[in-house]
Amino acid sequence: MQARTPKIDETVVCLGDQMKDTIDRLTRRSLELDIISIIGMPGIGKTTLARKVYNDLRVERCFYFRAWCSVSQEYHKRDLLLEILSNDTGLKDGIHQMNDEDLEMKLYQCLKNRKYLIVMDDVWDATAWRELQRAFPNDKNGSRILMTSRVSLEEAELKTNPYSLRPFSNDESWKLLQMKIFHGDCPEELLEVGKEIAEKCKGLPLAIVAIAGLLERAEKKLKVWKTIAESLSSRIVDDRQTPCMEILLLSYEHLPDHLKACFLYIGAFLEDRDIPVRKFIRLWIAEGFIQKSKLEGLEDLAEDYLMDLIGRSLVTVSRKRTTGQVKACRIHDLLRQMCLSKAKEENFLQLITRYDEPYTVFDDVDGGSDFYEYRPPNPVTYEKHRLFFNLKRKHFVNSSPSGPQTRSLILFATTDTNRRRPYDISFISHHFKLLRVLDLESINIGMSFPKGIELLIQLSYLAVSGDLESIPPSIANLWKLETFIVKGLTDKILLPSTIWCMTSLRHLHVNNQVVFDLEDGPESSSALANLVSLSSPSFSYGKDTEKILSGLSNLHKLKCIFKESWDSSENCNQFPGLELLTELESLKIFYLGKALHPGELSFPVNLKKLTLSNFRLPWDRISAIGGLEQLEVLNLVSRAFEGSEWEMNEGEFLKLKFLKLDSLNIARWTASAEPLPNLEHLALRNCKDLEEVPFEFADIPNLQKIEVQFCGQSTEESVRKIEEEGIEGLKIVIH
């Protein structure tokens, strides 16, 4: 499985004058808390403009704290508070256990005496603002609220500073279309028909980039383009909203069949929320959308499908990994609306919400109480093969739905007062006997594994969450299972020895500590030969760990905990020997215990990404990492290395692109004449003793960004000097 950095077309689809005007409104000298609203019809580029402004260097430097939250038509106050608070890196996970009032107070305290910018995207009326208003202090320090909305918020009695987006002119539309397709000038024979197509987009950027995605993949011949133009003419009436939907529909109809299923599937995910790429890629595979290839692995092929959809502007990138790969995606509201409509028309899937029967009466009957057990007199039976439930947990369980023909059941639970309350979901194995995909990650299934799950022998994908302490041996009955995810709510989870019999497993992920039952450990060196990703096993130095690792011969990604050995002898408290994992490309390892004996460090030779935490290793051992020829990303956090001086040697870290130093006691950092020749991004956080960043970094040709947070003044000054002397375009962000 190759870790590739996809090429993403990030052509700006907002106008320069719009961006300048919005930035000026945010950064002007008025000290009063000001609300600025970007108004416009769907598809005109409100969110795109807000995102560009939010990430602009001038805005980053102007505000001490920035946060983004997506409101949408259906929202929950709690989710918005958590989304904003998640931008404060100093907060712990404990905020998820707070009630709404405490969250509101925590946000107020977080923002108090700070100059902040909060973006509220896709606001439908003034209700969301009224619910959050008390959490936003007005310290008369120039803080700002930036909203995007389809409607004039003045009409909703909300006093804002409105900025109405105008549609693109025909010339601007053609310029964008041409840039997206040709990245330059259009051939003469396509000029006239190209301008005709651009004009039919009615100045809406979403329509322009969608039709560009279609045209870019079509033959660059006059006959082909005329056919597309005529198809648009036959569909479009003379108003702005219709052409956008018709162009989106035309783009969908021109998708290859293998992409249509993948695209419709994304549309069922939650509106205005980031969609984790790894999650839906694994779901695509489990659904059978990705056909096996001799040339590429399933995950690589699925990533190719995703990049095709991104290239067609049907899916947008919302977050990237440090490697440059796509971490999360989103889909525009209009595209999602079209997806759900086509999915219903084609009987592809069904999304069930509180607006569907029998759930429309639930809140009225139970008054919103978590403890009132209202059950409908006639439990509903569904016919569709794929069901997505977007409901409160109690409503899903109490309705006890069934689907005799259902192959996929995915629950996106909405906010309940008591999120940790356990539920009995044993009805699922009786009501949904043919499941291949079961995702219950958003509901607490309690302290014991659900009865009957082991009978669902067709399962390929299973995700659960709960106060589990162990997984039963009967899990091995699921012999087709390829993805198994456990969101544990306890300290650790024991996996049975039968796990080694599950030879189809490709992804095994538990968010807390995993302990293996080694009574009947791996019988051969290839017990789980198909497993490519694993988290979070707990290891210690010794033969048991070697026994486990010997059964993971094809592992590509590992997140693990390494614990101090009970044997106090010098040979038994050393850095783990991971060289057995010859295919490993990504390793994240946390250490618990006293300082290790400084023996030899050994790593898999193909590592591309490495995170070390709490090992307290001496800096003279870092050459073992510097010599890894494929390493591109290195995160050293929480005393991974200890000591006041890091003297970098020449010829090390030759491919490193991203380096993060977080919570280290390093004071002096010296570099060779040509350090880190391929470094693109340096992140420093909470290195309070660090005197300066080596000035030699100013000569790194590929360096694009240096981030500094919670470091000393001398560190900040050294970074400013590098900015003055460094490569043009170097972005410096100091928090």
From TrEMBL:
* Localization of this protein: Cytoplasm
Q: Is ATP-binding there in the keyword field?
A: yes
- Superkingdom of this entry's organism? Eukaryota
> Per its UniProt record, what InterPro entries does this chain match?
Apaf_helical (IPR042197), Disease_R_plants (IPR044974), LRR_dom_sf (IPR032675), LRR_R13L4/SHOC2-like (IPR055414), NB-ARC (IPR002182), P-loop_NTPase (IPR027417), WH-like_DNA-bd_sf (IPR036388), WHD_DRP (IPR058922)
Taking every annotated instance into account, which residue ranges of this chain make up the domain NB-ARC?
Answer: 19-184
Instruction: Return the similarity comment.
Output: Belongs to the disease resistance NB-LRR family.
Q: What is this protein called?
A: Uncharacterized protein
